[in-house]
Amino acid sequence: MIPDVDNDSIVYLNGQYVRLGDAKISVLDRGFIFGDGIYDVVPAYQGKPFRMEGHLARLERSLTAIGIDTGMTRDNWRALVTDMIARSGLGDCMVYIQVTRGVARRDHAFPENAQPTIFCMVSPFTRPDATKREKGLSAVGIPDIRWLRCEVKSVSLLGNVLAKQQAVEAGVDDVLQFRDGFLSEGSSCNIWVVRNGVLLAPPRNNLILEGIRYGLIEELAAAANVPFEVRAISEAEVDTADELMLTSATKEILPITRYNARPVGKGVAGPVYAALRAGYDKVIAAL
Ligand code: PDD
Q: How do residues 151-197 score in pLDDT, each as one tens digit?
C-alpha cells in the first residue's frame, strides 16, 4: 500500500494497464539507478487536456536531448494522454508521463539494446484556492546549484528537491533561484517580475525549464496590453520588484506577496497579476 495515493487507480506501464499499487519496475531501471530519464506533466480541466501539444512537443524535445528513441509518434502520445484521462474518469487532473532509458546492467554508457520504460499516471488536481490567489505565496531567494541543462525536463531532480526542502525549512511556499546573481526559476515553476508596469521574464535558455505557461503568459500579457520583456533579471531588481508571480501546470499563476520576509510591492496581489489571472481563467473556461 502506497500512502496518500489511490492505489486502485490504473496506470500505464510499458503497454500494460495495471493498478498503481501493483505497478513494478526493475531495480536496474536506469531511471532508478542513474536518474536517466525525462518526464512531463499535462494538466486537464473537466477531462480536457490543456495545451497538450506544447507539453508533447516538450516531451519529444527532452527525449531527443538525451537520445532516447521510444518509437512513439505524436499521435501515439496524444492517444495515450486522452485515453488515460478517459480511463481515470477524473475531471480536473494531472497526467504524468515518464520515460527512462530502460533496464540494463549497471554501466554509465548508454546500453545497446535497452527498451525505454514508459510510465503514465493520472492524479486528481484541485485548482489553487481563493486564499492562494488573493493573499499570495511567500518565497526566499537561494543560489541555483543545479546542472546546466535545466531546459531538459529530466527526472534527475535532486537540485529541485533540495531547493523545495529549503523553502519548507524556511517556512515559505517556494524559492527563487539565482545563478551568478540573476534570476532563473522556482523549485518547480517559472518566475515573473513586474517593474514599472513591465512584465519581465528570464531568458528561455539552458538555465531554466521553459514552462508551457511561458508562451501562454506572453500571449495573455499582449492581450492585456502589458509590456513584456525577456531579459536577465538581477537579484536587486527582484528585491525591489512591484510584483512577483509564478506559473506551473499545478500552480497555474499565483502571486508571490512576501519575499525574503518583506512584502512585495504593497504586499498584496497586484494589477498585472490580476490581469493575467483573469486571462488564464478565461482560457480555461473556454476549453
Ligand atoms: N514542473 N520550471 C521547472 C523547474 C518545473 O519543474 C516546471 C513544472 C516549470 C513550469 O512548467 P509548466 O508551466 O510547463 O508546468 C518550470 C512540473 C509541474 C512538475 O515538476 O510537477
A: 999 999 999 999 999 999 999 999 999 999 999 999 999 999 999 99
Determine the residue of 189, 217, 253 to mutate for testing ligand 1's pocket, defined as the one with the most ligand atoms within 8 A of the Cβ atom: 189
Catalytic residue of the set 132, 153, 164, 251: 153
Count of Cβ atoms closer than 10 Å to residue 2 Cβ: 9
Q: How far is CA 33 from CA 38, 101, 160, in A?
A: 14, 11, 18
Ligand 1 geometric centre to CA of 113 (Å): 31
Would you say 159 and 45 are in contact if contact means Cβ atoms under 8 Å apart? no
| Distance (Å) from CA 88 to ligand 1 centroid | 22
What structural domains does the chain harbor? 10-124 (3.30.470.10), 130-285 (3.20.10.10)
Q: For 224-278, what is each residue's pLDDT tens digit?
A: 999 999 999 999 999 999 999 999 999 999 999 999 999 999 999 999 999 999 9
251 is catalytic: no
Q: Which amino acid is at 94?
A: M
Q: In 3-state terms, what secondary structure has residue 105?
A: coil
Probe ligand 1: pick from 127, 145, 149, 188, max atoms within 8 Å of CB? 188
Candidates 258, 168, 253; CA nearest to 216 is 253
Query: Which grid cell is 136?
Result: 499570495
252 DSSP β-pair partners:
248
List, chain by chain if needed, residues with CB within 6 Å of any ligand 1 atom: 41, 160, 185, 188-190, 209, 211-213, 247-250
Single out the residue of 42, 209, 28 nearest to residue 121, CA to CA. Answer: 42
